[in-house]
Design brief:
Oligomer: single chain
Structural class: mainly beta
CATH architecture of the largest domain: Sandwich
CATH topology of the largest domain: Immunoglobulin-like
Order of helices and strands: HEEEEEEEEEEEEEEEEEEEEEEEE
Number of helices: 1
Radius of gyration: 27 Å
CATH class of the largest domain: Mainly Beta
CATH superfamily of the largest domain: Immunoglobulins
Number of domains: 3
Length: 343
């Protein structure tokens, strides 16, 4: 049997082999990503998961790449329904060039909060899915414990109280580190937790030098919330006795069962960057009871927003005011009458 091969078949075969060879050579010798040249691509070629892509971000310290840095990515996408669970926080390690591929959902809006640490240094930034070609570096800086003292009524020290560092911001942000507020990932909270001693003294870990820090507290009799401690502020923090806040619903209270209640603190004085501030804001799901009392609330004025969900429609959002005075106890409450079948 004789096999006859046409010349154009031979040409086609040779061309195919050459193309395959060129493709293999391209992927073997592909140029490294240059994070400082917007002309070069910053998006990784592989999909980390279905519907995602990777954005290359560099971790640096003083302009030098930090190999082996631990990097955490916390996606905060703008979901239409707030009941949708947040995507999981992810962890990775920077390669020998200080690069890490950050997972980003395709066509997402919102931010991906990044946190990195290496030894005693840490830092963070935010990644905008709509600006991946200009994604900033993660600049880490040395961290030192922030010392202070927690005092209660009559200047008595509050001993044995747990404080958790939530995040920090640099007192003098610059073009090199436009991160703004850096949040510590929840899985790492135990590494940045401290307890006051018998004299009320504390040492907050994980705060870069000359940075404002924010930490949370939950102290029986003095409330729960967050404290912002400026870099240059007096670290003696004084708490007033907590009180209660009552929300009363008139009509069929069962109509508000499961709805979101946001309790937002209204500052008594204008915000001052150099002064200590305490925020007693909180949120909860309404139980559907006619009267709901929030106990252990930091003294201050509050606005309560009652919001519907996808399962419990409520339009428009209802808002009422209430307050807790500095002597504690239930002092004021808000009322919301049933209107048009909606509570």
């Amino acid at each position: 049997m004789q096999i006859h091969t046409r010349p154009r078949d031979i040409v086609f075969t040779i061309s195919a082999v050459l193309l395959v060879g060129l493709a293999i050579q391209y992927f073997r010798n592909r140029a490294a990503v240059n994070v400082h040249d917007p002309a070069n691509r910053r998006i990784d070629a592989f999909a980390i998961q279905e519907g995602e892509y990777g954005v290359m971000v560099r971790v640096q310290f003083g302009g030098a790449a930090v190999a082996g840095a631990e990097v955490w990515a916390d996606p905060r996408y703008n979901e239409e329904d707030e009941d949708t669970p947040d995507p999981p926080i992810r962890r990775d390690t920077a390669d020998d060039r200080g690069l890490v591929s950050v997972p980003v959902r395709k066509n997402a809006s919102g931010r991906v909060h990044l946190f990195a640490r290496a030894g005693a240094s840490l830092g963070g930034t935010t990644l905008d899915p709509e600006k991946v070609l200009t994604a900033p570096d993660i600049v880490i800086r040395p961290a030192v414990p922030r010392e202070g003292r927690l005092l209660g009524a009559d200047e008595q020290p509050l001993a044995g109280m747990r404080l958790i560092t939530q995040g920090f911001s640099h007192a003098s942000p610059d073009d090199e580190n436009p991160a703004g507020e850096v949040e510590i990932p929840q899985p790492l909270s135990k590494d940045y937790t401290t307890t006051t001693d018998k004299d009320g003294q504390f040492r907050l870990p994980g705060v870069p030098k000359d940075a404002h820090c924010r930490f949370s507290f939950d102290i029986p009799g003095y409330g729960c919330g967050k404290i912002r401690l400026p870099a240059t502020a007096d670290a003696d923090i004084r708490l007033a006795p907590a009180g209660g806040l009552m929300l009363r619903v008139e009509g069929d209270a069962s109509a508000v069962r499961g709805m979101r209640c946001r309790v937002n603190a209204i500052p008594a004085i204008p915000f001052k960057p150099e002064a200590v501030s305490i925020d007693g804001s909180t949120k909860f799901r309404h139980s559907g009871s006619a009267r709901t009392t929030l106990s252990n609330v930091v003294p201050g004025k509050y606005q309560i927003h009652l919001e519907g969900t996808a399962k419990h429609a409520l339009l428009p959002t209802k808002a009422i005011n209430g307050c807790v005075d500095e002597w504690g106890g239930v002092r004021c409450w808000g009322r919301r009458k049933r209107e048009g079948g909606k509570a």
